[in-house]
Amino acid sequence: QHGTPVAGRQGWRKLLGQTLAHELLKAAKALHIEQAIAFNVTAGYLRGDALHHGHVEHMDLKHPQCVELIDSPDQIARFLEQNQPLLTQVRVLLRESGNGEL
Known about the structure:
26% of the residues lie in helices and 14% in strands. By secondary structure, it is an alpha+beta fold. The strands form two sheets. It has a two-stranded antiparallel sheet with strand order 1-4. It has a two-stranded antiparallel sheet with strand order 2-3. The N and C termini lie far apart (30 Å).
């Protein structure tokens, strides 16, 4: 969700900090994850919540966000382990592709 709090923030950073998606992208870059993308979700809902629509000027705090990380299974596991505090309210889906590239 767009308004998901980021663990460990204090003061003004807690109030005005970046989104969780942005924090996850920064963490992925720091760990040299091969590819990281935050998708712009135009509309959607999570776990039976109401349908939310995104808008450039205002984003509902419960608006869905989607971050995709692509790398080796070991590197993704390392990312998940090192960033566990950021992932407490996140649904993680893992998919391993076949041995051929598309």
